[in-house]
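subagent[fold] <- orchestrator: predict structure for attached chain, return tokens only, no commentary.
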Amino acid sequence: MNKLTLISFLFLAFFLLSCGHDKTEAIDDSLYTITILDHMFVPDTVTVPPGETIFFINRDGMPHQILSQSGENLFDDTGLFESEIIIDGDTSYINVPEDAQTGDVLFFYDGLLIETMHTPNGIITIEL
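subagent[fold] -> orchestrator:
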């Protein structure tokens, strides 16, 4: 086998192996990941620096959408951040505002399943 054939073979093998890679595997290991499972946010609190991205992985069988709220249990969509609708097995994200200050507390909720979530709220604490 010549060098060019070997390189082509290795490239093809790498490409085929990478096609089967689950896009959420890397996100699952992210420091700022919240899984939606059994109608709960797991975890329901996270501490992040300003401007950070928080990933939401839906493993619940139902669609979800993450919205900001002005306080716990207010469900008043402030428009500060909003995820896409997250279907089962998919991932979306929100971006924490870059101008958030250390000590700020941001609240989120599931805008689609407010009534059925066991943990209907989540808390984001800002820390550098």
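orchestrator: received. Logging for downstream: Confidence is low (pLDDT under 50) at residues 8-26. Helices lie at 3-19, 23-28.
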